[in-house]
Amino acid sequence: MDQAQTLRNIIKFQNANMVSNARVIAVTSGKGGVGKSNVSINLAIQFVKMGKKVIILDADFGLANIEVMFGVIPRYNLSDIMYNGKDIKDIITKGPLDIGFISGGSGIAKIVNLDREQIKRLVNKMSDLESMCDIIIIDTGAGIADSVMEFLVASPETIVVTTPEPTSITDSYALLKSLSMHSQFRPKDCKIKMIANKVESEKEGEMLHEKLNLVVSKFLDIDIEYLGIIPQDSNVTKAVMKQSPVSINYPNSPATKAFENISNRLLDAGTDVAVYKRGIRGYLKNVFAKML
């Protein structure tokens, strides 16, 4: 048994005995431009309105969608924990409604270059998030890059954002196919959920889910839970231009009401996600163990 496999086995045992109050949700998409980061931000806002404390980890390195949409420039990012001696509280930037977010910056890309001691330090510092929030949203990159897959395969709960565009549907399937082929993916340990974004009606969203779920369940043996729709809404575009989320700027808009419904559905189903109890420490240990 090689050294990396031994470490994975130790982590697997540790995770089985972890209990955490922090729920980890990864939000992803098969392609860019489908509204993934918008979903992450507005779900966070709705969770806060329901009394939850939320922190977003922007794991879409190379882009800075969360900070742009919040209209806030972070002073530090994830790399400052690893290389500049900062604690987790130092790199959390406050957005609207006191939502915290962590910019991945170049720090995410540098993860593959960390040694074991650096990984241990990072995981220990990041585990402080457990006492700071109830829900941690991981806003991943789009597509099937290795870096995206590592974040998804470690996640106990993944939301795939899809639109009716044919390329979005095919790319969502490609994403789930790549995930299913990953050596560390275990369907029983991860709930895959879907949001139909930019649709004209509830019926269109249901048909979109049915179409994707049919081929995914048949060829990949993955079942996708349907969370609902975010309708086409001009207020979303207006909010993006203002660098302020639609859930704050247009609280009575159709999109905001849809985000509220989906957030309620996620919280109502929370008790069914048993594996989320391992929290951010278990999540990150899974991510980093696969990179050793």
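Above is the first protein from milestone M3; the second protein from the same milestone is given next.
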Amino acid sequence: MKLLRIAPAALFACSLFVSPAFAVNKDMVQLQTQVQQLQESVARLQQANDERMGVLRDLVQQTADSVNRMSVSVNTLQKQMSTSSETEAGKTEQLSNQVQSLNDSMDELKARLGRMEKALSDLQNQQQSINAKLDNGVPSGGSNMPPAGANPVPDTAVPYTPPPAATPTPRKGGKPAAGTPMSQGVDPNAAQQPVAESAPPVSDLYQTAYSDYVAAKYALASAEFNRVIQFYPDNALSGNANFYLGEIDYRAGKFPSAIKFYDKVLEQYPGNNKIALSHLHKGYALIATRQEAAGARELRALIARYPGTPEANQARVKLNGLKRAAN
């Protein structure tokens, strides 16, 4: 009976202790469940972030590859443009050299034509002198009458006069008039001497100098070009001589001296066929002496004055090169 009385009390006491423990376990389970859910959410978020980061990495890699390909393409395009520009510059320079050679050939042809005209004129003068002397000759028999079949009256319409009474009467140009004995004839070249009597014809001087220049005999050519300028300062070929003196100094690296010769062509011979080349090579010489601004102005002046010439194209190429070097 005592046991039966104690049992309910024990059961009641156990119930008092078991109820809070059961409540604590339930809260722990809920907390663990929530923690588990939170961990799963974090894991899913981490997974989603990893996936997004993977996508971003792929996009960044693709962008980097695209930028690299674009950089390679740009570099290739720049090389092609540079090669094309150099090729165009080479072609333009070659064309300019061909044009210059053509101009030089024209000068040489003009010089040859001048020599031919002079030779023809001398031949005509000699022929006229011989004809006049034959008209004034005396027959071997000693007679004072003209020989049979000869015309006693030459083209000057002066009556025939026997040799002893003749006086030398020169015609225009130094040719002897009819009736002048052979011993008293006038030199047919007496009235045709140039102002500088000791100077050869300008065409001969220039052609000799140019031939030596082409043969790279620069010292000799320089002296001969200076003779052209000395004896014929106002002749058009003196402008060419100044230009080639500038070219000789330019090739020798004497840029200030070359600039002075180019200036002489530009200032003293405005109609010369070397004006455009003088502008171009003066600009080159200024750039070679570290005067880029002055050289650029000279090249722009050439382009403005002669826009469609090969020299202007070369000037544009040089200016573009200066801009790329400045950048």
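Note on the second protein: The radius of gyration is 53 Å.
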